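Troubleshooting log. The previous structure file for this entry was overwritten by mistake, so regenerating from the original sequence record. Sequence copied from the archived sheet and checked twice against the printout by T.R.
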Amino acid sequence: MKSIKDIDLSPKPDKKYWKSCHREWREEFIYFLLVDRFHDSNKRNSADFDVRHSGFGDDAQLGKQCGGTLRGIISHLTYIKNLGCTAIWLSPVFKNNPESYHGYAIENYLEIDERFGTKDELEELVAQAHQHDMRVFLDVVLHHAGNNWNYPEGKPYYYHEGTEFDFGEWRYLDRPVPVELRNPALYSRKGQIRNFDDYPETREGDFFSLKAFKNDESMEAIHVQKILTAIHCYWIKELDIDGFRLDAVKHMGALSISRFCSYVREYTYSLGKKNFFLFGEIVGADVMANNYLGPKTLTTYNDQNIYFGLNSALDFQLHFALEGVIKGQDSPHKLIERYEELQKNALDRGEYGEFLVTFLDNHDQIGDEFKHRFGYSTEPQQIIAGVAFLLCALGTPCIYYGTEQGLDGCGRGDRYIRECMFNPNDKTTNLLNQQSEVYKAIASIAQFRNESNVLKFGRMFMRESSKDGIHFHLPECNKCILAFSRILYDQEIVFIFNSSMSDEKEEHILVDCQLNRDKKLMTAVYGKKQNVEIIHSKDPANLVCYIKLYLKPMQLVILKNY
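Regenerated output below.
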């Protein structure tokens, strides 16, 4: 196909679309992988290690294609399933510029990049994931296309006070595809973004060499939106995809995002798919995300409809706060501040406005500074505690490929946090070790979450602690105990972590006295072999219930009252 006129959006007559997923999107545990870096098509065995690994690929290899494929993912779906994940988020798979390995430089929206595999293989991947009761989400890019044309004389142009520059020439005679995108008027043509936090530059400018579409309310921008909507509905129809992660959302207008989301949902309803999940990358304060989440009354002179935007967004604010707390560098009070801000902004986002997609690691870190994974300069217990926090706290947890094996990439560039899970120097070795300490611990906690309605739906309370069982307070110091509860009706689960790398601690942690008035014990779920006594104070002036724990450095304990 070369044109959107070739697209047929009627349901495939022989396709049984997956309509029976029994989970809400906030119940998922998402595994995010870069297709080029997860696994190639070779049959391999895991390297032998007990605890963690640093990943494969040298400086030169990580800057270009490494050879990961869709077939490699198909062959190892059980690895993802056994980790406890219920959904897979794939990096973009459409045909990219030849110098791109990550998927975000699209030159043909109607074909799968042959370096990754074929359309049939992607359809097979989705079908097999569904047989494993896992959803599949595609990463999609609406703000820009690949580096498919040049400015005059082939020189780099940079944003300057909204100036629209002349078009140079197309890079290829037959791309981009569909042919409707071979129209210079559909592109912003304002040069590369210099300041990613400055509006309107951040919306109108190019992502480095990747060329921005017009995304205002002009006729050309509306035409682009219709083209992109048809393209992505086509892939839902062909593949039976279950959701989209929208790239670079803050660089687009709220109206265009909400229209896209609403039209896509309408199309999925026509296929009988009623819980299509749409979440976005919004790097900024919570108040910025409010423009894109939930129901929006977006009225024009001839359109009085309510459009529904994204279901959720990646929780960058938690990402920024959590690492320092888990590593004992910051006070857990930073998390209290984060959840207070989340609560304030969730009220206008619809029913599940406080449920964001939470993560430790990401493939695309902000700024030019030193990039690093959470696992960099980190003990295995801290990686386990970080992922466990996501699994036990409010939100939809997402794990970035390799975190479950303790990858610790670092360097000046995103390539260093995009390591290979297979060895590009041989055809026999991978890192898909289901017996490593980090993998097994995450799998154990994830299984508990998958079986626990409390962790999926419960309210969240940060817990006060005390040295003497009398004077309780919320955490203030950088090595204070991190403790919180999730409560669903009469059930309570408590998460406790000693973030100190050196200090043993004896702590008293409050639990809900009303729920636990007649209970004597909390059951150990993780981190302790024995159940823990619930202590009821005898002071009528201070009727509290608490548990008393002795914690080793970096010890994580999870308890339940049922």
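The two ends are 57 Å apart (CA to CA). Archived copy saved in two places this time.
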